[in-house]
Amino acid sequence: MAYKLTVVEDKLGLNFNVKWENLAKQKKPEVEAKAPNGTIVKERTTYQGQVLPPGSTNRQWCDDTGTIYAKQDLQFFYNGEPVAEKEMTKIFKIQGYQDEKNYTDNYVISAYYELSPDINGMKKDFDKEVARITNLSQMRKLWEHLKNNKQVARAEFCTSSKGFQFTDGYIRAVEFGHLWGLEIGVFSQEKVFSHLQEEKIPAIPTHSQHATTKKIKFI
Where are the domains of the chain? Predict the structure, then answer.
């Protein structure tokens, strides 16, 4: 499924509309579980040994007495401080750049998303093509900037409205022969290296580095 996004870069004067969709499109293998007698078996929700039908349960906000509250009436806290619930990003406002090398060296990327030019909701074929090419030309300007400077563009990018942990996305220029495009990578964590080595390799020792010891001998 594709979602709409507006990319904004003030310094380059860019403001264009795209659609983004997940690059991980592999289908899960359809594996069946069968009992020894050949009956197909599936995982189902049960309570006290009874199978619950789909839709028979739901999740609600309750206190310890069982009183139910509407979510819009609640306030959320983290370490005693009120926190805001995130919303899906609609505007990708570029806040800065990092070296492209950092994209793979410094971060563990959890997901990749491909960008394509939007048609801005136009109905007529001519208007659709004008909108698509207009957005595409601005995508190309950003692509050339990233490619020429070997950088990625960073901005806050949340792919869903669930939860409270905000994430950053990095736009990167990709190229395959004469084909080009833009992707957004979302990192899950920063890499922490504990065994980085000095540039100069030390010389191999030529003799034992242990201290010489004497044997105690009584005659």
Answer: 3-23+82-190
Alpha carbon distance 160, 166 (integer Å): 10
Q: Distance between CA 104 and CA 117 in Å, rounded?
A: 26
Distance of CA 15 to the CA centre of its chain: 23
> What would the two tokens of residue 42 be?
């599936």
Q: How far apart are the first and last CA of the chain?
A: 90
In CATH, which of 2.40.290.10, 3.30.700.20, 3.40.50.10490, 3.40.50.1700 is domain 3-23+82-190? 2.40.290.10
Tell me the C-alpha distance between 142 and 130, whole Å: 19
Q: pLDDT tens digit string along 37-62? A: 999 998 888 988 888 888 888 889 99
Q: How confident is the model over 57-81, as a mean pLDDT? A: 90
Q: Strand 91-93 and strand 3-9: pairing?
A: parallel
Please return the burial class of 111, using the count of CB atoms within 10 Å of its CB with bins 0-12, 13-18 and 19+. middle
Sign (positive/negative) of CA torsion 168, 173, 179, 181? positive
pTM attached to this predicted model: 0.75
Strand partners, 5: 18
